[in-house]
Each structure stands twice: as structure tokens, then as C-alpha cells.
Amino acid sequence: MLKKWFLSLAIAGSALLSGLAGQAEASASVLPAAAPPVVKGGELTSPTDFKSQRDALPESRKPLEAPLSLDKAARGQGLSVNVNAALNNNPNNAIQVVTGAVYADKITEEGGQRWYVFQTNAPGKLTAYLQTIPSASIDYDLHLFRYDPATSSLVEQETSSYGPQSNEQISRIAPAGIYFLAVSAYTGFDANTSYYFTVVESPSYDSAEPDDNIWHAQEKTDSFTVSGQTIDNSLDADWIKYTVTAAKSFHIKLANNAPGTTYQLQIFNQNLGSLGTVDQNKDVDASLTPGTYYLRVVSLNSYNASVPYSLTFSEYKAPASVEIVSIKSEPNVDAGKRIDYGEGNKWRIQNYMTVTGLAKDASGAPAFNAPITVYIQTKLNNKIYSGTGTTSSNGTFNVAINGIQPAIGQNLFYGYVSTHYYDIIPLLVYSGGTQLNANDNSLYHYAYSIYNPH
Ligand SMILES: [Ca+2]
Ligand SMILES: [Ca+2]
């Protein structure tokens, strides 16, 4: 159990405020000035056992890669500061920090805690991030509390408690107020190596927030689309706990057009082991076994809190129909559209053809990665020709048939300057042995024409 702090109002208030004043002075060279939080009311206690949320953890013993490195950010901004000037090992000795800055600190004892306090002046999303010490034998956790002035207590605890070598992240939709942050040593410690942390404020954020860790992941099953979500700060991580109900193939797409940003989908198994990544605006087809996965969308560089991305997992279904968009043939017979010799609008081909189309499943959704075979049967000896292709991630396909023998010209059409001789031949589209409904079922197979002006 965590120690409880039962201090009188006077002691709690004065200890906190004097500690803040001292820290502000000690770190004045690197920290922006901030108004000290005003603490009033009764006793300041820590309401919850830090380790109680461990029970809810999946077996997250494997490293979870962090999207960025805070120590590099700290060095780059010149913001790194060792805040351990006084032993801030309880909330009454919490050190004042400000949002937007990066801090370094150390834990020097088994089971140790380090406490920080900050104030926000506007409601919004708070993101607290801990870059832990990269050691398999050290496991630090991160905790966020709101200070309730009415009761003088720390309330609404949020905890991020991944395993060793995983950075911790908490987000919370938070009113303006005073907040306490704590880093606790769950396993081991390193008195000589700093961890780094920061708290950032996001004035605007998407409706799925807070979803910055697996404990607040949205739940999705099989095919889904999320749209309207944004990356609202450089640390924002949007998590989805994803259930696949049977062995299925999915078309995966992370669409992002926010200028100057590069987002990425990261896919983890239920133990948070990495299964791979999907770059933005790429079409990816993947087969997944049934089970639980974790999905995380992050930015690899900048962010944009107003331009949303979308993420789609579309389950593969066998094609049921095709929409033929065009059939190309020799320039002298290819009108660029269907023509009508009197037997209806049909594409006209001669010695070769390329069929372009879109395959759809029974629901009308694009059928991706599906085999497509196109057959025609010419009149001379009923000779059959075929060509094959595979649909793209968007369900489109191109199938070519070359070396088609001449038509016999059993039909004729009296044109204005010539008479055309042609056959009407069947066109069939199959996928995996199943004939598909198509908007074209026959073609004009052009034979020849005789000059015959009217
Ligand atoms: Ca977000
Ligand atoms: Ca998020």
C-alpha cells in the first residue's frame, strides 16, 4: 500500500507552497515563471494504491517502442533540468513544473516515488509522458491526479503501468486546475540514470480522447472505420483494442492529408509485441488470425489538431460482381466507348483487348486481392480465349487477352460510308470458379468493312 499523507491544512499548504517557491528559485534559469498553485482546504492524501491497476494489465512484458525520445527533445530545447534538488518523494514536497517543458529526475531508492505539481489555466486535454530507464530490471510507472480544492484531496487517479522498457503515457480531458504527477518505482531503480517526463496541453482534441494508452483504447471488431480523429500534439497516441473474430484478410488504410505531417499505424499483438507498421496513405492487405490486437496511430514528426485522419480495416469478401469500366482494343476499332451496331451498346474489339474494371463483394464494397479471369468465345471453331488478373487493394483490375483470331463477320451493319462485318461474342468474368455478374456480357468482334458510300 502507498503511504497516506494525513497532514493538517496549514502544514500541507505551507509545505507545498514553500517547496514550490524554493524550486522556482532553484530552477529559474531554465524554467518559465509560473504562478504557484493555490492549495486550500483539508488534508492532502493520496487516494489510491499505486499498484492496484496492475491487475488490469495484459501480459505487457515486451518493450513498447516510444514514438519519440524525450531526452533528445530536452537537449535540443535546452530544457533538461534535474528537479531533484529536494527530495520530492511525497505530494507535500512535490516540485512545481510547467506544461510544455521536459524534465529529468532520478529515483534513488527501492519503491521510491517522485512527485510534481503543475497548474493549468484553461480546460483541455492533458498528456503526461514518461520516458523510462531502458533496463529490463527497472519498471517505473506514471500517475496523474487532480487536486480537488473542495476536499483538499488528490482525486481521479490515472495510471500508466506498462512493463519494463516501455514508456508510460496518460491523457485526460481536464478542467483548469492543479494537478499532481507521480513517478513510482514498481520494480528496481537506478540512482544514476535519469528518467524524463513532460506534460503538454492540447486545447483541441478529437472525440475519442483520451485514448493515449491501452487502458483507454477504443474497442473495434473486424471491419471498422474511424474518421474525424486527429493527432493533437507530438505525443498523441490513438489506441484501438482490436478483436478479429476469425481468420480473415483485411485491406488496411491510414489516410492522412494534414500538411507537413507523417502519421503511422503500429500493430501489436495482445502482449504488445510489434507485428508491423502501416505508413500513411498506403494500401496494405494483411491476413490476421483470430484474437486480440492493439493498434496505435502516432505521428512520426509534426501534428495537426484540426485536420483529421481516417483509419479503415476492410474485411475481404469474395467478389460477387464486376463493373467493366472500359475495354481497349486496336485504335481503328476502339471508339473509346460502347457503340451500337443495332444489337445494343457493346465494346468493340478485334485482335486484342484489355478489360479494366472494378470487382465488388455482395455488399457493393470493393473486393480486393481477388483473382479475376475474363473469357471470350470467338465464332470460328468456337475458340475460347482467356486472360487473368488480380484485383488491387481498391478492387480494380486489368485483364489483357492477346492474339485473338479474326472474326468471321456473320453480322453486318450498313454504315454511312461503309458496311461493317462483325460477330457478337460472349464475354464472361469469373473469380475462383464463380461467374460474376457484369454490366457487359457480350462484345462486337470486328471482322472487316467494305467501302460503300451512300
Ligand atoms: Ca487523437
Ligand atoms: Ca490519443
UniProtKB/TrEMBL annotation:
Signal peptide location: 1-26
Region (Disordered): 42-61
Organism in which the protein naturally occurs: Paenibacillus chitinolyticus
Keywords: Signal
Organism superkingdom: Bacteria
Annotated coiled-coil segments of the chain: none
Membrane-spanning ranges: none
Protein name: Peptidase
Biased composition, class Basic and acidic residues, residue ranges: 51-61
